[in-house]
Amino acid sequence: MTPGQAREEMALECTVERDPTAGIATFRPRGAISLWGMLELREAMAAALRNGYARHLLDLSAVWHINVRSLGILAERRDRAREAGGQLVLVAPSAPVRELLTAAGTYATFVVAGTEAEGRALLAPAGVTAG
Questions:
Q1: Closest CA to 30 of 5, 4, 11, 43
Q2: What's the N-to-C CA distance of the chain in angstroms?
Q3: What is the CATH number of the domain that holds 24?
Q4: Is residue 87 part of a domain?
Q5: How far apart are alpha carbons 44 and 49 in whole angstroms?
Q6: How does pLDDT run across 45-92, given as a tens digit for each residue?
Q7: Helix, strand, coil % in the chain, rounded to nearest 5
Q8: Is residue 130 part of a domain?
Q9: Is residue 106 part of a domain?
C-alpha cells in the first residue's frame, strides 16, 4: 500500500453535535476530505437523519480540500434533508471549498451561511428566533 492509499483510508476528522431542542445536527470536518472521507460524512449525516435530525449544519471553515467527486454526495445529502422536511446549510466554506463549488457551478444550489449563528437562524422554523 502506498502512503497516498493509506491516507485515503484514514478516518475523517469530524465532530458531530446533536441539539435535540433545536433538532439540528452540526458536522465539523477538518482538513482535506477525500472521497472516502465524504462517504464517512455521508453516513454520519444519514444516521442523523434516521434519528430525526433533518436540519443539518455543515461547517466547512476548517476544510482546505474537498474531492470534486464529493460534490454529488453533498447534493444528495441536501436533497435527502429537504425530502425529510429539513435543510442542509453549508457554514463558512473555506476559500478552496468555495472556489470548487463555484467552479463546478453548484455554489448557488446550496444554502450558505457565513457563521454558525446565521446557519441556525436559517434552520429555525418559521416564526421562531434561533437562540
A1: 11
A2: 49
A3: 3.30.750.24
A4: yes
A5: 9
A6: 999 999 999 999 999 999 999 988 899 999 999 999 999 999 999 999
A7: 45, 25, 30
A8: no
A9: yes
Residues found in the chain: 131
Q: Is 114 within the bounds of a domain?
A: yes
Distance of alpha carbon 2 from alpha carbon 73, whole angstroms: 26
C-alpha span between 39 and 49 (Å, rounded): 15
pTM above the 0.90 mark? no
How many domains is the chain built from?
A: 1
Decide: 89 and 58 in contact? Cβ < 8 Å. yes
Identify the band that residue 119 occupies on the pLDDT scale cut at 50, 70 and 90.
Answer: very high
8 A C-beta contact, residue 28 and residue 14: yes
Q: Rounded to 5 degrees, what angle do the CA atoms 98, 23, 81 make?
A: 50
Mean pLDDT of 96-115: 96
Cβ 26 vs Cβ 59: under 8 Å = yes
Residue 36 belongs to domain spanning: 18-123
Phi first, then psi: give them for residue 88, nearest 5 degrees: -110, 125
Spatial CB neighbours of 85, under 8 Å, sequence gap ≥ 6: 54
Residue 2: how many other CB atoms lie within 10 Å: 7
